[in-house]
Amino acid sequence: QVQLVESGGGSVQPGNSLRLSCVGSGFSFGSWPMKWVRQTPGKGSEWVSSINSDGTHTRYNEAVKGRFTISRDNSKNTLYLQMNSLKPEDTAQYFCTKTNTFTSGLNDDDYWGQGTQVTVSS
After folding, report:
1. Which end of the chain is more exposed for a tag (fewer CB within 10 A), N or C?
2. Distance between CA atoms of 49 and 83, rounded to whole angstroms?
3. Complete DSSP assignment for 28-74
4. Region for residue 85 given its phi and psi (left: phi exceeds 0; alpha: psi -120 to 50; beta: otherwise)
5. What are the Cα distances from residue 8, in Å, to 17, 23, 46?
């Protein structure tokens, strides 16, 4: 019954922006920390960002810090990832996750959505 549906991915040129969205259902969205993670064939799974349940605290992978912004609107059961100044190395499938604790990195209790593809190339 828990569902996480990502959207907003696409193909863009370096330097452009995208905003990803993730709509959660089947659980009390505002009670759970959330994360964005990404996967590539070369690097596997990589943690991107985390946000606590009420959105007052955030954490970022150093690779995206200053360029990406994680946020949430609990009234809409939606998590966002604003991605600016995109680089080719940001190319990946992006997933939102529901998680038990607000922390950096990946955890076994991360519950993943289906993902949305982001491709950055010239």
Report:
1. N
2. 11
3. -GGGS-EEEEEEETTTEEEEEEEE-TTSS-EEE-TTTBTTEEEEEEG
4. left
5. 11, 11, 19
Structure letter (DSSP) for residue 108: T
Question: Percentage of the chain with pLDDT > 70?
Answer: 100
Which of 13, 19, 74, 81 has its CA nearest to residue 47? 81
**AA identity, residue 95:** F
Model confidence pLDDT, tens digit, residues 59-72? 999 999 999 999 99
- Give the separation between CA 14 and CA 36, rounded to whole angstroms: 20
Q: Which helix (H) or strand (E) holds 84?
A: none
Q: How far is Cα 40 from Cα 37, in angstroms, rounded to an integer?
A: 10
Which of 54-87 are b and which e, b meaning 16 or more Cβ less than 10 Å from the residue's Cβ? ebeebbbbeebeeebbbebebeebbbbbebeebe
Per-residue tokens: 57: 């605290």
**Strand partners for 94:** 38, 116
Q: Are 35 and 81 within 8 A, CB to CB?
A: no
